């Protein structure tokens, strides 16, 4: 077999996938390399980080995907004006007027969409992306075509002018429902109803469209204000046999197929036997906590600081018939500190913080609360190992590290660490 990554023509003729945008886009650093090699590199990185804190056989090899393509169920694209097309050279006109042509209308500027090239705001057209959900990607290009036809101006980030800034598309991996968020630079959206009607005609799998208004000059994609333009304003999707509601601003894992593997692994590491109180810290829409509630937790308390996520989490509890759960909107640090002070107890702490990891205040309160197990899910093992070390220094043992490949072809690593409270030392 030819060495993939070295000879693209050979790769294609061997039936292997090849990303034509890889060099320019830069989001998937290893997409044109053999998948197994990138898994080995991730294994080495995790081993390098954790080996000083755990027994060598406690660090498991990464769980990869059988089919590591088109897995991203969330697709984001900016819009911007491209270069104006060159005007044709003026025709030579004879004295008798021969050669004269009617003046041409100025060509409209191209509208660019796709992804920002790594570390820049230059848009690369990534139509043939190998990791994004294909239906969601088609929506991006349908929106771009409608912008052209309806003369909707793309946003100009330097001048702060133009109308459509971004589109964010989320596809339910089991339900097939698709949520489209149009991020606009103005609240007024004339003809939004006919725009949505046409979008749904072009992409009939779109089940809801939301307008998000972001008028600030910022790199943050979403603004605060939203209104539903079409459909219910959220999609439903299934994970681990439960149904989840996902709305525009709520966190939802981008690789749903591997999320099931991640949650199955985390819940089995939690060792639930029907008696435990479980905290689901940084719970998002309550997904992992609800799976725990259905698989052996006596009681689950979830906390997240995004209001819409908690609204979704409560709705998710209701429509999955989970009565042994409670979700709170709060800062996770404040929640943990209050919980530790109140004298309440918890047996298992499930935690899944953002890339920055947990704060020392959170970890101090966790150690004080003293759950017998901590199952720490992270999308950044560098901050995870820092936090694990804190817990190891404060009475816990690192029992297992299980990486799961949530982001194939990229350098990103997701891993689960299981910590167990070490027995108190006899004096
Ligand atoms: C990696 S996501 C995990 C979500 C969820 N466990 C899941 O699997 O879908 C991190 C979550 O932390 C929340 N978050 C970030 N900072 C927080 C804070 N200081 N307090 C509470 N939640 C926070 C975010 O809103 C987001 O939902």
Automatic annotation (TrEMBL):
Keyword Transferase: yes
InterPro entries: MeTrfase_TrmA_AS, MeTrfase_TrmA_CS, SAM-dependent_MTases_sf, U5_MeTrfase_fam
A Pfam family annotated for this UniProt entry: tRNA_U5-meth_tr
Molecular functions (GO terms): rRNA (uridine-C5-)-methyltransferase activity
UniProt keyword annotations, A-Z: Methyltransferase, S-adenosyl-L-methionine, Transferase
BP-aspect Gene Ontology terms: rRNA base methylation
Catalytic residues of the enzyme: 379 (nucleophile), 379
Domain of life assignment: Bacteria
Protein residues bound to S-adenosyl-L-methionine: 253, 282, 304, 352
Claim: Signal is one of the keywords in the record: no
Enzyme Commission code(s) on record: 2.1.1.190
Uppermost EC category: transferase
Family: Belongs to the class I-like SAM-binding methyltransferase superfamily. RNA M5U methyltransferase family.
Protein name in UniProt: 23S rRNA (Uracil(1939)-C(5))-methyltransferase RlmD
Species for this entry: Xiamenia xianingshaonis
């Amino acid at each position: 077999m030819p060495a993939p990554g070295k000879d693209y023509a050979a790769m294609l003729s061997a039936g292997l996938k090849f990303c034509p945008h890889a060099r320019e886009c830069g989001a998937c650093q290893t997409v044109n390399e053999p998948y197994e090699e990138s898994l080995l590199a991730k294994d080495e990185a995790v081993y390098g980080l954790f080996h000083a804190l755990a027994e060598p056989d406690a660090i498991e090899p990464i769980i990869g995907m059988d089919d590591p393509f088109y897995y991203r169920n969330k697709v984001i694209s900016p819009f911007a004006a491209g270069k104006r097309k060159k005007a044709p050279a003026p025709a030579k006109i004879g004295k008798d007027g021969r050669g004269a042509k009617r003046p041409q209308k100025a060509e409209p500027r191209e509208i660019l969409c796709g992804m920002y090239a790594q570390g820049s705001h230059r848009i690369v057209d990534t139509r043939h992306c190998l990791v994004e959900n294909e239906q969601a990607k088609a929506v991006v290009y349908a929106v771009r075509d409608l912008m052209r036809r309806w003369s909707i101006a793309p946003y100009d980030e330097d001048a702060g002018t133009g109308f459509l800034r971004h589109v964010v598309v989320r596809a339910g991996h089991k339900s097939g429902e698709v949520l489209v968020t149009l991020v606009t630079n103005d609240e007024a959206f004339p003809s939004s109803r006919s725009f949505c009607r046409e979008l749904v005609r072009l992409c009939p799998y779109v089940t809801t469209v939301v307008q998000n208004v972001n008028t600030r000059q910022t790199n943050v994609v979403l603004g605060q204000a939203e209104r539903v333009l079409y459909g219910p304003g959220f999609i439903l999707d299934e994970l681990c046999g439960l149904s989840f509601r996902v709305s525009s601003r709520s966190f939802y894992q981008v690789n749903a197929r591997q999320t099931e593997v991640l949650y199955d692994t985390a819940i089995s590491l939690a060792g639930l036997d029907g008696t435990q109180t479980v905290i689901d810290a940084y719970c998002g829409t309550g997904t992992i906590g609800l799976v725990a509630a259905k698989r052996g937790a006596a009681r689950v308390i979830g906390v997240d600081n995004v209001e819409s996520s908690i609204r979704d989490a409560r709705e998710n509890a209701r429509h999955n018939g989970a009565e042994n759960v409670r979700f709170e909107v709060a800062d996770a640090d404040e929640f943990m500190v209050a919980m530790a002070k109140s004298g309440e107890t918890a047996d298992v702490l499930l935690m899944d913080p953002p890339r920055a990891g947990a704060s020392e205040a959170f970890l101090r309160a966790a150690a004080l609360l003293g759950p017998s197990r901590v199952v720490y899910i992270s999308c950044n093992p560098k901050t995870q190992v820092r936090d694990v070390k804190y817990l190891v220094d404060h009475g816990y043992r690192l029992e297992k590290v299980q990486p799961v490949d949530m982001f194939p072809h990229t350098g990103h690593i997701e891993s689960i660490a299981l910590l167990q409270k070490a027995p108190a030392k006899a004096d």
